[in-house]
Write a structure and sequence with these properties.
- The complex is a heterodimer of chains A (482) and B (711).
- By secondary structure, chain A is an alpha/beta fold.
- In chain A, β17 and β18 form a beta hairpin.
- The longest helix of chain A has 22 residues.
- Chain A is elongated, with a radius of gyration of 24 Å.
- Chain A starts with a strand and ends with a helix.
- With 711 residues, chain B is of the alpha/beta class.
- Chain B is built from 24 helices and 28 strands.
- Chain B is elongated, with a radius of gyration of 31 Å.
- Chain B starts with a strand and ends with a strand.
- The chains are: A alpha/beta (482), B alpha/beta (711).
């Protein structure tokens, strides 16, 4: 068996692991990183940037947000059911982390909101000097290059399989498997677990959250996120936490297709459940977490977004009512063509019908109730939404065929939580005592949202990963060099 | 070949004059983004990612197609080069989805990695997505045109590497696409080699879910038959040798990992076939019969390559002359140790000779191969039972290898289990093979549904039984016997009663008179191994019978007196790594350790144990040898119309009427024509493993790997 020796071993090279590696190396430790994939960055390569509070960017843009305000908002939102010390430390350090990344040469386009009601905490990584796609990937590249500069060694396609503990109960290394299938024994004083959750492990999702993947949950199964970190940590005595899904809502088969479809159906028009009844103020549809929650408690965990030809024409002429960073097509000129293609490809997400009755039949919902709902809705469009108090601007009647429906289901970015840590990213055992030498960061440990992702402070998940990664790196380096 | 000096990004490097700028840069760990370039393909210069500025030349040049020259000065990161590169990536995202969500290639995608490196905007150009669904018509390969960036690597791989040309570019509805060159892949002459999948940089062409094993090394995943074989025999290599008519080379390839190639050709449990990728198309390649034919043609010329180490002066004892024991004896002798094999029975072969009936495996084949294996400094003492392994150490043997198999059949605690006319599988088969034909009645019931039960039933029929039944707890689709054997059994008129619980053996005057059973809806085994049954009420049935044969399992015929620690099922306990038993110097492997398994598993386990024994005896434990020549497979396998439809070749088998009254060989295997036909069906998965693996920018950042040591 091949043998390696280091002070700090980091499992996985997403933002949490990369931040831990850089921080530990800056603090003088010898660091090795073991990554399953060929590409660094993990799920965060799809993201755009982390949360920061009290940053230079916010001062310059005159954004009114402070650690105190964010903390209060956050604790109100979570009803104090989450680790306040960890939240406080994370928020308090978040501005320094943005500056830390800038010192490495990373540029930010600025601090942004995700949707109008949210705060401008989202620090979007500049892509070619502006806002582009996948800034997270560039951030991860910068972190890796910085880590290499500091002498961190990377082992790609070399997943860790087991964390090792000595007879005194102290962590003493790990076993990894290289690309030829050969086991490597790594001796290390401290190990940082940062594996990004179990989004690609339907069995674990079922066991820990109750959802059945692709039956009532259409979450992203980001390849490789098998819950390895959670399992390995539990094997060496880590206490487990509740796990939840980082909820949103989705057109399961159309989300990665042409943007005109998801973007149009996410507009705040008529949203009905399986009974053909409204169940929420559609204005909230921009908050993907809230909407995902609301859909998840409807019968069959399903909802239909309805538009008519007049609404479609209006969007084509004047643009959509609301857009966000993910869904903002230049125009939706090809909407009808994409609908035709989708129907031809048996994509169940999209339904088209000439009459309301036919639409209801195709959707398999009660025709009378649905027609009644539409009639009532159309009446309210002339006065006001006396049921859910939706803003008048978004009250557009559903009258002119053909009609279109988009079928939304609960989706999720991945899992949250699994390993119990304290505010220093030390992994705790069942008596809440730190397991000596074991640290964990990022999604594997993220239970700070309570039951629902805190969308009002965007950039939260990546921010949490980077900051807890730094806490873990700092702690591991100090422990390993003690 | 001469060397030149050049400068890339201010760094002087030495390159081979035949290299391109890109090759020279990569060899010196200077990364230049590239996508359409692939080590095993001709340069096309199409993606324009690898552009660089060359001093003295205007504009940019594509580094993948420009040869190096003495004194050349290259700037890979000039503004112009970066600008062209960014534009190229943006162009790729015109058609490729801009979000990675939902893509199974995520984390292993070269386009993702390149976009991470270059930092594309992806939004400055108008989207022009191709809106067509996934093509799932192929059993192995999944094609999603909407993820394609038209780098052309798949088309070039199919054409240049393989000479197949099953893929081409074509305009469909005014848009250039990669399409099949025909109405289907089969029509297009696809050989299902997987080269297109291997070179695809995005998630556009992928292996179908379930086709490639996850969590194992690339080689194991890509060549599943070798991974499936317990002894890791290089199957594609010997199948190819057979196709080329090099039968001895083929047999030698088997022999590199297993010393009984021909016997295996008759009776191997062929885990390789279960893993064969062609299962997903139209049935596995009949690998076992190919091996059998090759082995039957072996002229022994491999012997000159067989290693023989000088005498070590060490003496080893082997207990049991079955597949495990003989394999161990063979290699121990080759390693220079003196070997004595103690065999309880009058003949060698273990279960091959005393369990498996002669109509499945001719005794001459066993004798021939045993003679081969024991031709060195191996002495076999027949009719020599060993009562204590420990005593052998005291008698002066330096190490002992125990491979006593599982020769004690189990008798269930069932009413009537000791009546006259009740037999036990192992004893019954052993008696036949010793030539003492046991007395058999007219109506025989075999209890059990595994391969041994099938052998008992077939033997009973051949001994003259008029009616033979098999009764087992398992349902038809989950019987432990192989499908092929169950089918043959049925052909011979043996009646199989599935999903039955054994109630009792009915006796009359101390003799078997019948068998009672009830139907079972479902069952499972609890933690203690006890069957928990859900019986069908009032389903009691009786079969009139005069003979009952228990074939419900077997265990090692060993007691504590033997001196070794025994575990569950009376099996010998060994350390997994060292294969050593509870007594240092005594090693064990095969059925006696694992419970009844297979000949190939016993051979594989014995090889592992021999390595450990040799180390124990002061050797290096190295037993690998190269008996067949090195093979340089031809990658250009060529186009073959309707290759996918080539049906699995079935062996020549004696008719049920002609075979069920005698112990003559029933399965004649392949003749040369059939062997060649079948070998043609091999997809040659090993070719794909020879394609250079995909690399990423982070692979080129220099690392100084320190303190790596071999322990």
């Amino acid at each position: 068996m091949k043998k390696l020796e280091t002070q700090v071993a980091v499992i996985a090279a997403g933002p949490s692991g990369l931040a831990a590696a850089v921080q530990a190396a800056e603090d003088g430790a010898k660091v090795m990183v073991f990554e399953k994939s060929n590409v660094v960055g993990g799920a965060a390569n799809m993201g755009m940037g982390p949360l920061g509070i009290g940053t230079r960017q916010q001062q310059q843009q005159m954004v009114d947000i402070s650690v105190e305000k964010a903390f209060k908002m956050f604790m109100d939102y979570t009803h104090w059911r989450v680790d306040a010390n960890l939240v406080r430390k994370y928020f308090g350090n978040s501005a320094d982390t943005i500056a830390w990344l800038e010192d490495m040469g990373l540029e930010f386009a600025g601090a942004y909101k995700y949707f109008p009601k949210s705060e401008a905490t989202w620090h979007i990584v500049a892509v070619n000097g502006g806002i582009g796609r996948n800034g997270g990937a560039i951030m991860n590249k910068t972190l890796m290059e910085r880590a290499k500069e500091l002498g961190v060694e990377f082992f790609m396609e070399t997943p860790a399989k087991k964390i090792l503990k000595d007879k005194d109960g102290k962590i003493c290394g790990l076993i990894a498997v290289d690309k030829s299938g050969e086991e490597i024994e790594v001796s290390a004083k401290a190990v940082v677990v940062a594996c990004g959750g179990a989004g690609d492990n339907p069995e674990m999702i079922k066991q820990r959250t109750g959802y059945t993947w692709r039956e009532d949950l259409f979450s992203f199964a980001i390849p490789g996120l098998k819950g390895d970190g959670i399992n390995m940590a539990a094997e060496v005595g880590a206490a487990t936490t509740e796990m939840s899904m980082e909820m949103m809502y989705i057109l399961p088969n159309s989300d990665f297709g042409p943007d005109c479809i998801p973007a149009t159906f996410m507009q705040p028009n008529l949203l009905v459940n399986n009974f053909g009844k409204r169940f929420m103020n559609e204005e909230e549809m921009q908050n993907t977490t809230f909407t995902g929650n609301a859909i998840a408690i409807q019968r069959g965990k399903i909802a239909y977004s309805i538009i008519d030809t007049s609404i479609l024409k209006g969007y084509k002429r004047n643009g959509l009512d609301v857009t966000n960073f993910v869904h903002h097509p230049e125009n939706i000129d090809d909407f009808e063509q994409v609908v035709e293609d989708s129907i031809a490809n048996n994509n169940p997400d999209v339904v088209k019908a000439d009459t309301l009755e036919e639409l209801a039949e195709k959707l398999g919902i009660n025709v009378d109730t649905f027609v009644e709902t539409v009639e009532e809705y159309n009446e309210m469009c002339e006065s006001y939404d006396e049921v859910f108090f939706k803003d008048r601007r978004f009250m557009k009647p559903i009258k002119k065929g053909p009609f279109y429906a988009g079928t939304f289901r609960p989706g999720a970015y991945g899992t949250l939580g699994g390993i119990k840590i304290n505010e220093n990213a030390e992994v705790l055992d069942n008596e809440w005592k730190p397991v000596p030498g074991l640290y964990a960061a990022g999604t594997d440990t993220c239970t700070i949202y309570g039951d629902s992702y805190m969308f009002l402070l965007p950039g939260n998940t990546m921010g949490y990963c980077l900051n807890t990664g730094r806490f873990a790196g700092e702690g591991a380096a100090a422990y390993a060099q003690d | 070949m001469s060397q030149i000096k050049m400068i890339i990004d201010g760094k002087e490097i030495i390159a081979d004059e035949n290299q391109t700028i890109l090759e020279a840069a990569l060899a010196n760990k200077i990364y230049i983004p590239h996508l359409c370039y692939h080590e095993n393909l001709n340069h096309s210069g199409g993606c324009r990612l690898c552009v660089v500025e060359q001093e003295g030349v205007g504009g940019v040049v594509t580094s993948c197609s420009t040869k190096v020259a003495e004194g050349m000065v290259i700037h890979t990161k000039s503004d112009l080069a970066e600008k062209v590169r960014k534009l190229s990536v943006d162009l790729m995202f015109k058609t490729h989805p801009s979000e990675c969500t939902g893509c199974p290639k995520y984390g292993k995608c070269q386009l993702m990695s390149i976009s991470q490196y270059i930092g594309d905007t992806g939004r400055s150009l108008r989207d022009l997505k191709i809106r067509i669904g996934a093509d799932e018509s192929n059993p192995l390969i999944h094609h999603e045109m909407y993820r394609c960036i038209l780098c052309g690597r798949c088309v070039r791989a199919c054409d240049e590497m393989r000479g197949v040309g099953a893929l081409k570019y074509d305009k469909v509805n005014g848009r250039l696409q990669v399409v099949v060159n025909g109405s289907s892949l089969s029509e297009a002459g696809c050989r299902f080699c997987g080269a297109c999948v291997e070179v695809c940089p995005t998630g556009s062409i992928r292996d179908k879910v379930g086709v490639i094993k996850e969590g194992v090394s690339r080689e194991k995943a890509l060549v599943p038959c070798i991974d499936g074989c317990p002894a890791n025999i290089n199957i594609p290599k010997y199948v190819r040798y057979l196709r080329e008519g090099k039968y001895t080379e083929a047999a030698a390839t088997v022999r590199e990992k297993a010393p009984f190639p021909e016997a295996l050709g008759y009776i191997c449990t062929h885990d390789c076939e279960l893993a064969c990728r062609r299962n997903h198309i139209n049935g596995a390649v009949s690998i076992r019969n190919i091996k059998r034919y090759a082995a039957s043609q072996d002229d022994g010329s491999w012997k000159v390559h067989s290693f023989q180490k000088p005498e070590t002066g060490k003496k080893a004892a082997v207990v049991g002359a079955g597949p495990a024991g003989l394999t161990a004896a063979y290699y121990l002798s080759k390693l220079g140790h003196e070997v004595v094999v103690f065999e309880k029975l009058p003949q060698a072969g273990g279960q091959m000779a005393y369990g498996i009936p002669s109509y499945r495996l001719p005794r001459e084949v066993i004798q021939k191969e045993v003679a081969e294996v024991t031709s060195g400094r191996v002495k076999v003492e027949y009719n020599s039972p060993v009562t204590s392994a420990k005593d052998l150490l005291e008698q002066g043997y330096d190490a002992v290898f125990v491979a006593i198999g599982t020769h004690e059949g189990l008798r269930l605690p069932l009413e009537g289990n000791d009546l006259k006319g009740v037999y036990i599988n192992t004893e019954f088969l052993r008696e036949i093979n010793l030539g003492n034909h046991p007395e058999i009645g007219e109506r025989v019931v075999v209890l059990g549904g595994g391969n041994v039960a099938v052998d008992c039933a077939g033997s009973a029929l051949r001994l003259g039984a008029k009616e033979v039944h098999m009764v087992c707890l398992e349902a038809e689709d989950s019987m432990r016997a192989s499908e092929e054997e169950v089918a043959w059994t049925k052909e011979e008129g043996i009646q199989i009663h599935n999903s039955k619980n054994f109630e009792r053996i009915v006796g009359e005057d101390g003799k078997v008179a019948g068998f009672e059973m009830t139907s079972v809806k479902s069952f499972y085994f609890d933690e203690t191994g006890k069957a928990v049954l859900d019986k069908v009420p009032d389903s009691l049935e009786t079969i009139d019978a005069d003979t009952i044969i228990f074939a419900i399992g077997q265990r090692p015929a060993v007691t504590e007196e033997f001196g070794l620690k025994l575990g569950r099922g009376n099996r010998i306990e060994v350390d997994e790594k060292t294969t050593q038993t509870s007594i240092p110097g005594i090693f064990a492997a095969g059925d006696a350790v694992t419970g009844t398994a297979s000949v190939i598993k016993a051979i594989a386990a014995a090889r592992k144990a021999v390595s450990q024994m040799d180390i124990y005896l002061g050797g290096d434990g190295y037993i690998e040898e190269q008996l067949a020549s090195v093979q340089e497979p031809e990658g250009r396998i060529g186009n073959w119309k309707h290759y996918a439809e080539l049906e699995r070749t079935e062996p020549n088998v004696a008719s049920a009427e002609s075979r069920c009254h005698n112990f003559d060989l029933m399965d004649f295997g392949f003749d040369a024509d059939k062997a060649h036909c079948e070998a043609d069906r091999c997809l040659q998965c090993d070719l794909r493993a020879r394609i250079a693996p995909q690399r990423f920018w982070n692979d080129y950042i220099p690392t100084e790997s320190k303190e790596v040591q071999n322990g």
